[in-house]
């Protein structure tokens, strides 16, 4: 199969991870390409009028990994680094994540190569609407359901939904998730990923016999996922001793005031400027001693260069793909020291509650917040138990166990449905 369209370090990482789990599961060579490579990949040009009168064209992408279990599901990110290889890798990971959680979805991902912080509000709306307009032939409530990701938010999802609805001639809330409540969103969606991370950290602490009120945590990335994770862990009694974003990193063994950090970010949009006393380099923060380390920013931050230096007891992957395969091999040798909550388990709260939002929109029947989180925690608990049990039974890493469960689900569905025509 000619796979030249997919390249780059993030895609190679997803490909390497799949090869390892395929070897473990003894998947036939003839079946591997069908399981790994995406069903569809779209590239679109998105021209908009800039405020200064210029017309500028931005490149947009959408990858749908498989539709075997139901529609595809995945976020849309606006970031300068976006390329088709990165988007494909994220779609593949989303497939295993949905399968592990038992959701009737295949994985998808989309994005535009742009720095959204360099766009005016009017330009951001124009680009968002144009992207959805270009995607209309390829998406739908039963084909591909979009969601927010890095650089996008509830407002962007509302523009997506409105644009799609205008072309259909009726309101189609279920075309996207992560919308404002006023546009058919669900209670709890914004906090879902972070609260899910905190729940699983709590379960890992219990599993290891560590009291939450005596534990410390460092959170790398203080966006939506990281900030909610830090706040939720602090509510459980965990002392937050380090945080960072792309502008600054802070470390204080006595503990940081998470509520004050959130207020500062809410006002200024970044951590920079909080304090001059507890500043630390971002790379140093990742290897400071703590009970819980939460990489919640971007891919490939735990590498072969720092994996042996990490000094946490629990590595909770709030981001997608924060640990490279080379680093994973090092961490596996440190299994007795470091308890890994792999990304497809740890950050699944967002897509699980997105699924709840989609179900509520389809039924036009909405749940109370307590019901949303009760259902979320039950699914996460089941996935946690299955992952830990399989890792122990087969003497494999938690990542391998989680991926094996996800790949097995998709493989079984493809085998049952057969190959058309």
From TrEMBL:
Gene Ontology MF term list: glutamate dehydrogenase (NAD+) activity; nucleotide binding
GO biological process: L-glutamate catabolic process
Residues binding NAD(+): 193, 224
Family: Belongs to the Glu/Leu/Phe/Val dehydrogenases family.
UniProt domain Glutamate/phenylalanine/leucine/valine/L-tryptophan dehydrogenase C-terminal: residue ranges: 186-418
CDD domains, sorted: NAD_bind_1_Glu_DH
Keyword Nucleotide-binding: yes
InterPro entries, A to Z: Aminoacid_DH-like_N_sf, Glu/Leu/Phe/Val/Trp_DH, Glu/Leu/Phe/Val/Trp_DH_C, Glu/Leu/Phe/Val/Trp_DH_dimer, Glu/Leu/Phe/Val_DH_AS, Glu_DH, NAD(P)-bd_dom_sf, NAD_bind_Glu_DH
Transmembrane segments: none
Gene3D superfamilies in the record: Leucine Dehydrogenase, chain A, domain 1, NAD(P)-binding Rossmann-like Domain
Swiss-Prot/TrEMBL site (Important for catalysis) positions: 149
Protein's name according to its UniProt entry: Glutamate dehydrogenase
């Amino acid at each position: 199969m000619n796979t030249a369209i997919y390249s780059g370090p993030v895609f190679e990482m997803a490909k390497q991870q799949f090869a390892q789990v395929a070897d473990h599961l003894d998947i036939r060579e003839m079946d591997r390409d069908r399981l790994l490579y995406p069903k569809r990949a779209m590239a679109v040009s998105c021209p908009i009028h800039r405020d200064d009168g210029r017309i500028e064209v931005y490149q947009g992408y959408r990858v749908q990994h498989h539709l075997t279990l139901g529609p595809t599901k995945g976020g849309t990110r606006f970031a300068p680094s976006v390329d088709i290889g990165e988007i494909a890798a994220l779609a593949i990971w989303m497939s295993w994540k949905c399968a592990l959680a038992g959701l009737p979805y295949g994985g998808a991902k989309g994005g535009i190569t742009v720095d959204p912080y360099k766009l005016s509000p009017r330009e951001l709306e124009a680009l968002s609407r144009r992207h959805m307009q270009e995607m209309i032939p390829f998406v739908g409530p039963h084909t591909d359901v979009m969601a927010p990701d890095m650089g996008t938010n509830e407002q962007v999802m509302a523009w997506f939904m409105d644009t799609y609805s205008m072309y259909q001639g009726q309101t189609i809330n279920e075309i996207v998730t992560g919308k404002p409540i006023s546009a058919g969103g669900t209670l709890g969606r914004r906090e879902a990923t972070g609260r899910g991370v905190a729940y699983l950290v709590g379960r890992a602490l219990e599993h290891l016999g560590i009291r939450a009120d005596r534990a410390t945590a460092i959170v790398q990335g203080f966006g939506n996922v990281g900030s909610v994770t830090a706040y939720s862990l602090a509510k459980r009694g965990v002392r937050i001793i380090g945080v960072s974003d792309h502008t600054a990193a802070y470390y204080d063994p006595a503990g940081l005031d998470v509520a004050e950090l959130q207020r500062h970010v809410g006002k200024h949009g970044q951590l920079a400027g909080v304090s001059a006393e507890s500043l630390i380099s971002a790379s140093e923060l990742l290897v400071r001693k703590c009970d819980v380390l939460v990489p919640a920013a971007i891919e490939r931050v735990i590498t072969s260069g720092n994996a042996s230096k990490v000094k946490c007891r629990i590595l909770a992957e709030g981001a997608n793909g924060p640990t490279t395969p080379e680093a994973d091999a090092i961490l596996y040798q440190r299994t007795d020291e470091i308890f890994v909550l792999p990304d497809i388990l740890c950050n699944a709260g967002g897509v699980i509650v997105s699924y709840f939002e989609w179900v509520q929109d389809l039924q036009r029947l909405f749940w109370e917040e307590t019901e949303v989180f009760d259902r979320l925690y039950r699914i996460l608990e089941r996935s946690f138990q299955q992952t830990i049990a399989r890792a122990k039974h087969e003497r494999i890493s938690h990542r391998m166990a989680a991926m094996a469960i996800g790949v097995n689900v998709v493989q079984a569905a493809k085998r049952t449905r057969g190959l058309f025509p």
